Amino acid sequence: MASTKAPAEGEEKVTTKKMYYLYCQFCRWSSRDVGIPDQSTVTGGWPERENVHANRLQELVDMYKAIVVAQKQQQEKDKKKQRGKYVSYTDRTGVTAAALRKRIGLPADLTHPLLKSKPKEPEPAKAETEVEKLPADIFTKPINLMEITTVSQRLLQPEAQPTTVDTLFPVHKQLSIKRTLRCRTCEHNVSKPEYNPCSVKFKIQLFAYYHIPEVRIVTVEPLRAGKECELILKFTNPTQHQTTISFLELKLDEEEEVLENKMVQVTESVEHLSVQEKQQPLSLSSQPSSLLSLSSRSPSIVIKPRQITEQVNCSVEIPTSSFILPPRDDAAEYDDSGDTHNIQDDTKLVKWRKSNKAFIKLRITPNGDLPINTEVVCGFVMQHIYTNAITGQLEKKEPQKYDHRVKVFLTLGKLVGSE
Known about the structure:
The chain is of the alpha+beta class. The chain is built from 8 helices and 11 strands. The protein starts with about 55 loop residues before the first helix and ends in a 5-residue tail after the last strand.
């Protein structure tokens, strides 16, 4: 909180000092309720509550630490007592360690000084004869359960065990934040951890989430074998560019043949690249150090195609028309005045739209030979216009547009019986 005061005439300007306090918007709790003073900094500096049993707990902790150290030293001593495989020099000459100590003038049973020290035992707990009396109004005062702490709340603070809510104190808790992730190939930072999860920023904007339209199931009619039903999907455009989406039929048999040919081409290209990298070593004199470091951290990447294992048991009636998704606009999410996009949609395909979202209606038919309680899976190919703005920013060119195809598989639910 900050307080400002207008300076009077002739007085110097007073700098505003901001004070911060903790406040929860969910339960309306604040640090002022339990008497925690306001702090001048946001992070850290909050005072800790004094524990009356701090000295006793510290004595117990020190005792157990000393016991652990003594046990480790005893184990090391027992290891040294074990006789080795080879005879020592003193045993071969007839001079023992005890005789050597006597010649030097040391006692024969000399041990390490650390082994002699034993942990100091704290004073045992004593039972008190005088116990605090119960308050006089314990049986007459009405109980308000909203002001009494629960068992879990008391166990979270075992040193104080507060009985009322007004004596609760903040508990130290580890934050759940994102970890630092690096790309396994180029070692660039992919995500950076922050204290506030909302402020986590991805370093590389190359995830499919930022470029491929999002598809979600809204509603689906009861699925019956061999009968047509209606499916409504929601498409969302995550990019800052307008895109056009159309549907194509999914042909898995042809895809398997194309996949086998691609696998052969990929293996041949990998072998060819490995031979080229061996035959053409880098010349240190012809390239600057910046390019050398870049080339060493950017090896040749070959993406192998993955085989599709999903089995489709439902046919989709592919619509002949396409629809347009406007670019993403964060401000439009909070604007209820209406959309300004004048788009002529096919009413048989587009049910409703708002900003960069569109609800699409499809007709699907599960296979007629499916038994009841079978998971129904349908699939289609989504073709959208992808605008590559990343290479355009690097090379200072206009963004290039491509027709990108994505295979979409949807698990619609289990098959039900006839009406």
